[in-house]
């Protein structure tokens, strides 16, 4: 069995975060479109627009920062796609093609934690970055 160096473990964590933030910025916009469909007694569209768009922009910035960090380490994500209850990611790390498999439910829970982190920092008036 191949042993994993601490640098490779760090890159695997960056890949995981890259995937999480990529999912979060896209899902926030899908959720915004769904929130617009639901009939409400009062119009909150401006609030929803601002909230989801700000969250999406934050997640997208984090996603791009992580991609740059991965590239600087010689690591690039080649493909990512949902396969049933799993999310399969192929990435190139120092010339080797690697595969990471994530549970959709775990990714959903981790995205929810990121939303909580964003809300906490936003309420404190901070610009959130990891």
Structural key phrases:
130 residues; alpha+beta; three-stranded antiparallel β-sheet; 3 helices; 19% strand
Describe the protein.
With 130 residues, this protein is of the alpha+beta class. The protein contains three helices and three strands; from the N terminus they run ααβββα. It has helices spanning 6-37, 45-72, 104-123, and strands at 75-83, 86-93, 96-103. Strands 1-2-3 form a three-stranded antiparallel sheet. Helix 1 (6-37) packs antiparallel against helix 2 (45-72) and helix 1 crosses helix 3. The mean pLDDT is 85.
Strands, helices and their partners?
Elements: H1 6-37, H2 45-72, E1 75-83, E2 86-93, E3 96-103, H3 104-123
Antiparallel strand pairs: 1-2, 2-3
Average pLDDT, all residues? 85
Q: Which sheet architecture does the biggest sheet show?
A: 3 strands, antiparallel
Largest sheet: spatial strand order: 1-2-3
| Strands, total number | 3
Count of helices?
A: 3
Helix content: 55-70%
User: Which consecutive residue ranges, at least 5 long each, have pLDDT under 50?
Assistant: none
What general form does the structure show?
elongated
H/E series, N to C? HHEEEH
Radius of gyration: 17 Å
Q: Which structural class matches the secondary elements?
A: alpha+beta
Q: CA-to-CA gap between the ends?
A: 33 Å
Strand content: 15-25%
């Amino acid at each position: 069995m191949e042993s994993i160096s601490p640098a490779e473990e760090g890159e695997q964590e960056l890949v995981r975060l890259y995937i999480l933030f990529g999912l979060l910025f896209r899902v926030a916009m899908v959720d915004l479109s769904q929130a617009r469909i639901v009939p409400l007694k009062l119009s909150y569209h401006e609030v929803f627009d601002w909230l989801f768009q700000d969250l999406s922009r934050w997640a997208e910035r984090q996603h791009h920062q992580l991609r740059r960090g991965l590239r600087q380490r010689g690591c690039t994500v080649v493909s990512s796609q949902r396969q049933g209850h799993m999310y399969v990611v192929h990435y190139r790390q120092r010339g080797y093609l690697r595969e990471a498999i994530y549970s959709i439910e775990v990714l959903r829970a981790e995205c929810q934690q990121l939303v909580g982190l964003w809300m906490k920092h936003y309420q404190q008036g901070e610009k959130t970055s990891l």
